[in-house]
Amino acid sequence: MTDEPDDHDHEFSAGQGLEEDYEEFTLDPPELNADPSAVDPVDTRVITDALDRRNIADDQVDVEQLLDVGLSYMGINRFEEATGTFERAAMYASEDSLDAQEAWVNKGVAHAELEEYDEAIGAYEEALRIDDDSEHAATAETNLAYALWEFGRHEEALEHAERAVEIDPRFAQAWYNRGFFLLERGLAEDAVTAFNNAIRLGHRNADVLEEKARALEETGEHDEAEEVAEEAEQLRQERERELVEEHGGGGPVTDRESGGAAGGARGTDPGRGGGRGSGLDGNAGGGLGGGLDDVLGGNAGDGVDGDSGDGSDGFDSERGGR
């Protein structure tokens, strides 16, 4: 069946049409000023990044908020998303600013959590390029030491661990990392000193004590080593009981929550600089496994005894190791 023709012709409106200078529109995508030879074909973010710059002015982006979003991703173990968020924070931060440096350090921590140590090294090095003596520099140095160690560049790792405590001599976790590297190099006496400094500065947990016990064994202090090892085990058991209570008695406690196994380097928890966040210590979602700590920002407390005689006030003297 076909429609019968309408008895009346349809009357169209008689408009004025388009002006002569009307600019035609197109549905084609915008052309981006990007050099194809400089773009990795597997980098799916390049278009997004280019459009971000094209459509969003730098002064419209809250870099502080982006950093907090990245930390939130880290808190729920979504490290891939965290790396992207920190990268954008660095992109929108003022060039070579502390915010940019903070973003690069946290990006490195996120990569380390993914065991992407090459990318972590690059992020920490970029942070140090911005400023190698800022409030974030010691954190970047000790984190870089950790990533280098995991990447097999052990000699460089010790150099950066020592640089971290030179920048901030009251950085407890940096002393712990330095002690670990010294012990791995066979400098057990110097390692004991470093661990003592870390403990006096408030970084006292099972991992630190276990490493100190190992160093004491190497120096022949077997009785003291046994006492320290027993204390470490007691602290570990107490920590596990606390976690069981926090979980309400349900579900297993993971290595990450209990602080991880002893031995080996550890990355620090991400945090905000200037005392706004915590450094990484491997506890309650912080560490990558026993051994070294990675940290971001914040100064450690007082409490290291002794005079090194080399201008570093309040620390045990170092006996070589450089």
TrEMBL record:
<dbReference type="Pfam" id="PF13424">
    <property type="entry name" value="TPR_12"/>
</dbReference>
<keyword id="KW-0802">TPR repeat</keyword>
<dbReference type="InterPro" id="IPR051685">
    <property type="entry name" value="Ycf3/AcsC/BcsC/TPR_MFPF"/>
</dbReference>
<feature type="repeat" description="TPR">
    <location>
        <begin position="172"/>
        <end position="205"/>
    </location>
</feature>
<feature type="compositionally biased region" description="Acidic residues">
    <location>
        <begin position="220"/>
        <end position="232"/>
    </location>
</feature>
<keyword id="KW-0677">Repeat</keyword>
<feature type="repeat" description="TPR">
    <location>
        <begin position="138"/>
        <end position="171"/>
    </location>
</feature>
<feature type="repeat" description="TPR">
    <location>
        <begin position="101"/>
        <end position="134"/>
    </location>
</feature>
<dbReference type="Pfam" id="PF13432">
    <property type="entry name" value="TPR_16"/>
</dbReference>
<feature type="compositionally biased region" description="Gly residues">
    <location>
        <begin position="260"/>
        <end position="303"/>
    </location>
</feature>
<protein>
    <submittedName>
        <fullName>Tetratricopeptide repeat-containing protein</fullName>
    </submittedName>
</protein>
<dbReference type="InterPro" id="IPR019734">
    <property type="entry name" value="TPR_rpt"/>
</dbReference>
<feature type="compositionally biased region" description="Basic and acidic residues">
    <location>
        <begin position="233"/>
        <end position="258"/>
    </location>
</feature>
<feature type="region of interest" description="Disordered">
    <location>
        <begin position="216"/>
        <end position="322"/>
    </location>
</feature>
<feature type="compositionally biased region" description="Acidic residues">
    <location>
        <begin position="304"/>
        <end position="315"/>
    </location>
</feature>
<feature type="region of interest" description="Disordered">
    <location>
        <begin position="1"/>
        <end position="40"/>
    </location>
</feature>
<dbReference type="InterPro" id="IPR011990">
    <property type="entry name" value="TPR-like_helical_dom_sf"/>
</dbReference>
